[in-house]
């Protein structure tokens, strides 16, 4: 890194681009000081000077805009800030090929409010969807299936991450990412994958598909986040050399200002739903989540769950249930723990359902309990998403449930009013079905959540909602 006039204060760091990760590389920059921003310039060193201790071989003055970035530094513990939340970013097809438009709106919004970072909580790339300009009306013509090679997964990422506005966002904001299902294949879960060469009645999909999807995720998304833990070129190289990424710990934590975040992996640890002891989060991840929730730091707590902990979508068949709803016993266990141990009730952030809304989880046994759940989706989707009950397309897409949550697997078959569990869901806002993202402002006394439509010229139907901090204090 260097300014064209070689100003003092710039630091240099050489790092390798890894062929195992589609020529992606990560470096660690030691940074001290009071500056609010970190300016970065990057370029390729010619092979003749790659092993040199000098950087004279790179013409810094000729670097294009795409080689420069300006990222915000973490504020003091008491600092107020805001951030963006989004998920489900489909590139689109034909006249619906507008997957990059939302990021220009996000950049414009950032210029107005100086947001700190962006959380992308799943389906940033639809690897199992075809790349093309035609609308996939006929499945026989446009089959949705995962790539058949690692290069195929890398190609999907190159295609989608090359979009110009998305690249500008990556150069402007720190971005914390986690996968959901479409980074690998639709509705994937860890238990469905067999070992290479093995077979079995409940092990349906090739292990290579999972490994390819996770390797491409590590290259293009995981490398942006503390999943590399700590950020370092050596750690990324170690992960790149592994041949069993499915066993890696993908969930992580980070702090920012007066808030702490835990980002969950809601896919890898799943066991097959149905038995009472079925789990969405494995033992280690669940223990880490409980530890995070019960830490008394005085900070806001945010839990990023790619699939929403609430609300549920109405379905009595486990075959079509892809959220926490299929694991009611573990959800009940987590909510019971929050009630008993959490000094500050966590706010759950999620996507997945192709709508944005705030709901809250309440309890008949503890009237003061208030667990906010913020959904933000979709950044771009070319048809429609889950509908509200009674909507014109509800019979095709399913609908959102409110009222009592099922506490056992048997209660999935019951209507909400027939259930006996103590937890129930209340809608706090309307649902926004248009392409959009969420902006969250964090201050000492309240959180403010508002939706922003992907098309800046069409903001009808958006909403804002405030969560006073006092409502999150578990008394």
TrEMBL record:
Domain PhoD-like phosphatase metallophosphatase: 101-361
One Pfam family hit: PhoD
Domain of life per record: Bacteria
Alphabetized InterPro entries for the sequence: Metallo-depent_PP-like, PhoD-like_MPP, PhoD-like_sf, Phospholipid_Metab_Enz
Taxonomic source organism: Thauera sinica
Descriptive protein name: Alkaline phosphatase D family protein
